[in-house]
Write a structure and sequence with these properties.
With about 280 residues, the chain is an alpha/beta fold. Helix content is about 30%, strand content about 25%. β2 and β3 (about 25-30) form a beta hairpin. It is globular and about 60 Å long.
């Protein structure tokens, strides 16, 4: 890992995409395709047909930011950071967070390298939600791009050393293409019992079994599974916390705060709710 720069590729022609201004607020390729930063600092690279997927709304992203800021999922963030440092043995990786959301987990992982020689890694945050990328763009040494993970990623071949995927789609072929040989992928998924006590009261979507096997299948033969780490933590949720929890995930597309509070008045969330996660560590062959 001798170079800490992440080389982007143009989403139109795949030529290298580089900053054209000292401020870094414009990206362009040799073919003349140009992308200007939004005023909040992120870049929207979705061109042409864009995407058919729904982005997380402003309200969903705000709920997630507040919930995470309260520290409920800190054990997961800390475990991801520990796994990243262990995998890279003190070397500074170039990080791609695929489905980064607000950048909460990316920030935790990047900060874990702050005291290493070379300091905080250069990072790239990708997410389909512009509202999420507004927040991720504020992280140090991070470029935030609105992008659909099921399309060719706007990153050069072997352009990163670490891929984070936390509750996000897993495009195994593209992860393999952009990861340097020997690089790592950290994938976090919920266990079947995750938030089990709150599923009914909050109208959350159930979690299927077999997530561990499906992750390995999605990544494919280019990845060697190294180990799995389980993280369980009790959540003590106020009504406000519970509302944010319901709004911040996929169920947030179907619920609103008023409706959730009406549900809670009839079926309150138990005093303790279990958060349960699986972290799987893979090496690019």
């Amino acid at each position: 890992m001798t170079d800490d720069s992440i080389v982007l590729s143009c989403p139109v022609c795949t030529e290298p995409l580089t900053a054209t201004q000292p401020t870094g607020r414009a990206l362009a390729c040799p073919a003349g395709h140009r992308f200007d930063a939004a005023k909040q600092g992120y870049f929207n690279l979705l061109t042409g047909r864009g995407t058919s997927f729904r982005e997380d709304t402003s309200a969903m992203v705000e709920a997630r930011a507040q919930f995470l800021a309260a520290g409920h999922y800190t054990p997961l963030a800390e475990a991801l950071a520990e796994e990243a440092v262990s995998a890279h043995h003190g070397r500074i990786p170039r990080i791609l967070d695929a489905g980064a959301g607000t950048g909460y987990y990316l920030d935790a992982v990047a900060r874990a390298f702050d005291k290493a020689p070379g300091g905080r890694p250069e990072s790239l945050a990708l997410d389909i939600s512009r509202y999420a990328m507004r927040r991720a763009a504020k992280l140090p040494r991070t470029r935030a791009l609105v992008w659909d993970l099921w399309r060719r990623l706007p990153v050069a071949d072997a352009g990163v050393d670490l891929v984070l995927d936390v509750f996000a789609p897993r495009n195994g072929a593209e992860f393999a293409r952009v990861l340097a040989p020997g690089g790592h992928a950290l994938v976090a998924t919920p266990l079947p019992e995750h938030l089990g006590e709150a599923m009914g009261p909050l109208g959350l979507l159930s979690i299927g079994t077999g997530k561990g096997e499906s992750v390995a299948d999605a990544l494919g033969q280019d990845f060697e599974p190294l180990h799995t780490r389980i993280v369980r933590t009790p959540l003590h949720l106020s009504d406000d916390d519970a509302v944010r929890l319901a709004l911040m995930g996929p169920a947030g597309h179907h619920h609103d705060a008023a409706g959730i509070r009406e549900r809670l008045a009839v079926h309150p969330v138990p005093q303790v709710v279990t958060a349960a996660f699986r972290i799987q560590v893979f090496r690019r062959r």
